[in-house]
Write a structure and sequence with these properties.
Structural class: alpha/beta
CATH class of the largest domain: Alpha Beta
Largest sheet: 7 strands, parallel
Number of helices: 8
Number of domains: 2
Strand order of the largest sheet: 6-9-3-10-11-12-13
Radius of gyration: 24 Å
Distance between the termini: 7 Å
Length: 526
Amino acid sequence: MPESTASGALRDPLPLILIRGYGGVGVEDEKNNAYQGFNDGTVYPHKRGDNYIYEGLILRLMKSADHPYRDATNVVSYHSQPVGDAPSEIPVEVRHVGAEFFSGDKVVLEPTMSCDLVKSDPLRTIWVFRYYDLNDRRVTTYGKALVRLIDAVQALTSDPATGKKPKVNIIAHSMGGLIVREAVQVAYPESGRKAAEHVNKIVTLGTPHKGISFQVLEKWIGVPGAEELERFNEDNQGAEKPTTASPAPWKHFRNHFPLERLLTVVGTNYRSYNIAISSSLNRLFSLPGEFGLNYNRSDGLVKQTNAQIDGAPRTFVHKCHGGFDSLVTSREAYEIATRFFFGNVKARLRLVRADIKTGKDFFGKSEFFFGASIKPRSVDFHLFNQKAEAENCYGPFHQTDLSDEKVSFPWAGEDRLIWEGWLDTDRERKDDLVIRVDIYVGERDLSGLGFSDNVIYNGQVFIQAKLDEAEPVSLYKHDDQRFISDPERSFASDARLDPAGSRAWTFDIESEGFDATFQVELEPLA
C-alpha cells in the first residue's frame, strides 16, 4: 500500500508549488511576470474540441472538473530584506498558523489574503515560488526560501482542529528543479529535518540534474547570476560537492528523498528550441556513446540523459526546453504531472522477447533502435513518446534479439522495462481503461554505406483493461479501435500475481520483419 500523508493517501489533492527556471543575467522581466510563464499555453490547430486549446498549467488546473485548484500566489509576499514588524493583530481565522509566518523573514504570509484562503478548500491551492523577488542571486538562498514557503503553506493549510499538516506537491522547470534539490539535499538536512516528511511528490521538467554538456561559464564570472549559472555545472550543484571518492551531487538525491516519488520529464525536440546556438553546442559536445555529431539527444539546452536521475521514473515528451509549445507550455506536461499526482493505476510495459528478421546491412555498420509511445484514450496527447526524429529510441543494438548488455541509450529499468507511468480511470470510464501503444523498430547504417533509415516495424496495438471490481481484471489486445469485450481476444489467461501485488499479462506481435512478446503490468493504487 502507498505511504499515507497527514491528509490521506499519496494521490490526494495537496497544495501545489510551481517553480520556473533560470531567467538569465537580467531578471526584471521575470519579476514583472505574475505567474512566471506557468499561465502560458499552446494552440493545437490540428486538434479538435478540448484538445484544441491548452490554456496553460494554472488556468487548466483552475478549470479542471476532476482536480480543481485555486490560485494562492498572492497569499505570500517576497522581500529583499526580512519583514521586521509583525501585524498588530493576527485575524482569528489564521491564528492557528503561527505569528512567525507573518514577519521575521523575506518570505511572509499576507494576513488578509490568508483569511480569504482558509474560507475555501486550502488543500486545492497553487503557489508560484517567486524567488527572484528576494533580490539575492544565489541558489543556496532559494533553497532555504523554498523550505520557508513550504513551512508557511503547510501551516496555513493545516487542520485547525487536529494540527495535521499536509505535504505539498511540486512542479519545477529547468533550474527550478535544482532549487528543489538544494532544498531537499541541503536546506532540510541543515534544519535537522527530512524533506520526504514535508514534500509528497516532485515533477521536474527539463531540469539539468547532471549538468549541461557544454560549459562556457567562464564568460559569466562576475555578472549577476554567476552563482546560478555555476549550478548548471555538474561539479557544482550543492553543498555535497564531489570528491574522487564521492559520486556527483545528483547521485545523493536518493539518500534524501524516495526516488519513486520523483518524476523527471525529458524533452526531446531540440529542433524547435529558439536559441539555436545551444542546440548546436549540444551536438558538438556529445556525451560518451553518442557517436559525436551523429546525435543531438537534447531538448535544445539539456541533454536527455542529463535531465534524468538514475533510478527515478522518467518520461519523454517531444517538446523543446522553453518558449512556445515547450515542456512548460504544452499540455503533455499537465497530463503527465496530474496523472503522477492523482493517478490510481501504475502501469508498466516490458519487452520479454524480440526477433528482428530483416535488415542487417551487408555494407557498413548496422545498428537497431527500438521505441514505443503511449497514449491513453481519454486525451489526444502522448504520456510517453519515443520516435526516430526525437533520437530517444533505445539502442543502438547490434543483436537481433535486442539483448545487448551495453548500449548508449539503455532500457528504462531492469528486465527491459520500456515505460513506467500513471493512469487515472477517474478521467475515463471507471470500468474500462484503454491505451494505445505505438511500436517502432528501425535500422541505421552508422558508416553510411548502405541505407541509413530502414523501418523494420512500425505498428500499433490497443490494450483494453476491464476493471470490474466484482471480477478479476481482464486485458484485451486489439489491432484497431473496436474495443469489444470478446473473450476470444482476451489474453488474461497469461495473467499472474507478482510479489508487489500487480497483475501482469503478455501479448505477442508478429510481422514479416519483427516478432516480439511484451508484458503489461497494472498496479492499483490506494
